[in-house]
Write a structure and sequence with these properties.
Blueprint (H helix, E strand, L loop, with lengths): L6 E5 L4 H14 L2 E8 L8 H8 L5 E5 L1 H13 L17 H15 L3 E3 L8 H12 L4 E3 L1 H4 L5 H10 L15 E4 L4 E4 L29 E8 L2 E5 L2 E2 L2 H14 L4 E7 L5 E7 L1 H17 L2 H19 L6 H12 L6 E8 L2 E8 L7 H4 L12 H9 L1 H13 L1
Helix pairs in contact: 3-8, 4-5, 8-9, 10-11
């Protein structure tokens, strides 16, 4: 363990675990700690983190509202690719880590800190995501990962350390927490304890961002989302900032029971884990964005995007947001969005999202061309015979050979 650290920037939530980490850093390294608390729309008051940091004698306290930056520069670019990890997960936790890591490195430069610290455990993906981000932006930065270094390896030891150092312990943290939660504007993620066993049904009280189907609206909700170059810009014809728009989508999804996912995923570190995810606004946005692409993208572009997406999703999941390959794929994805502009109208009802209307001035859908009526001039049905004959040549040759050999 390196002990020549003078100042460290800690990703600080103000909760019990990061408060313990803060005190541990002061004890272990006898160093100055700078705290950084990011508001990414987690839905809880973050200003109390300032008082807690002051209680530990922290002089440089950063508390920043990054919601607009988060949605505009991280969530929206990811959604241009219709990104899903392992076919289901909308990457709500993974996409938040590069922004936090980036801001930590910037604060380290601003304050003259020689190290950064995160509170991710040694079993999860987040340690990789944070540290890949750190090293991508500052290859010489020192990184402290307490969960890999300290002796506080159990909840009882953490509680004992907190009590010895006069760290306030919330009553619900005195015993074993039923599950852990990560939240931001895109999603909530619940993991651990009672839901670690895949045979256990997730209890209703776990869900924070969505109503159950039973409690959801009893009548359909109609919503029109406007897009410009692949990004949503309006709801119901009213232009909104990225974060405000996403908050509105979250409310619509919540009230209509949309966005729940019970997933067993493959972590980057090698193990399987079970997560209960809620992504109400993101689930609506994915459906709407795909619908506007169906209208405005040609088949070659759409199909290539579909082939690239799993690779792009894995790069984000594995913490490689700042990698050259992710940036290269992003340029290709963004190029495809030039004409992805228009409006999609959806009906939301009891967990379902139904498309009711598509409109775009850049639509590639030609009613005359696709109609069974013989009214178009761009397509001669008799040409299809030659098209089929040429493209079936391989199949006909195979059939002849197989027939001869049999």
């Amino acid at each position: 363990m390196t002990n020549n650290i003078k100042k460290v920037v800690l990703a600080y939530s103000g909760g019990l675990d990061t408060s313990i980490i803060l005190k541990w850093l002061q004890n272990q390294y006898n160093c100055e700690v700078v705290t950084f608390t990011a508001d990414l729309g987690q839905g809880e008051e973050i200003e109390p983190a300032r008082k807690k940091a002051e209680m530990f004698g922290v002089k440089q306290i950063y508390i920043e509202d990054l919601r607009e930056d988060f949605v505009k520069n991280y969530i929206f670019p990811m959604f241009r690719a219709n990104t899903l990890y392992e076919g289901q997960y909308l990457l709500g936790t993974a996409i938040a880590r590069p922004l936090i890591a980036k801001r930590q490195i910037e604060i380290a430069e601003e304050t003259g800190a020689d190290a950064v610290c995160h509170g991710a455990t040694g079993k999860g993906n987040d340690q990789v995501r944070f540290e890949f981000g750190y090293y991508s932006l500052n290859p010489s930065i020192k990184v402290i990962a307490p969960w890999r270094d300290w002796e506080l390896t159990s909840r009882s030891k953490l509680i004992e350390f907190a009590e010895q150092n006069q760290i306030p312990i919330p009553k619900d943290k005195k015993g074993e927490a039923p599950f852990s939660v990560d939240a931001n504007l895109l999603h909530t993620s619940s993991e651990g304890k009672l839901i670690e066993n895949p045979e256990n049904e997730a209890p209703e009280y776990i869900f924070q961002r969505t109503l159950s189907i039973d409690d959801a609206n009893n009548t359909p909700t109609t919503v029109t989302i406007g897009f410009e170059c692949g990004d949503p810009i309006s709801i119901g014809g009213v232009k909104l900032s990225p974060a405000t728009l996403f908050e509105k989508l979250n409310d619509l999804g919540k009230n209509n029971g949309i966005g729940r996912l019970d997933l067993i995923e493959n972590r980057f570190v090698g193990m399987k884990s079970r997560g209960i995810y809620e992504t109400p606004g993101g689930t609506i946005l994915l459906k709407a964005h795909r619908a506007i692409e169906e209208l405005t993208l040609d088949s070659g572009t759409m199909h290539l995007k579909d082939e690239l997406m799993p690779k792009y999703a894995t790069l984000i999941y594995n913490g490689l947001w700042f990698s050259p390959e992710r940036e290269m794929l992003q340029k290709a994805i963004d190029e495809s969005q030039k004409y992805v502009t228009g409006e999609i109208t959806l009906k939301l009802y009891k967990g379902n999202i139904l498309i009711s209307n598509r409109q775009s001035n850049h639509s590639l859908y030609d009613t005359d061309l696709v109609s069974f009526e013989d009214s178009d001039t761009d397509y001669d049905q008799s040409d299809a015979g030659g098209f089929i004959k040429i493209n079936s040549l391989r199949l006909r040759l195979l059939a002849k050979r197989n027939k001869k050999n049999s």
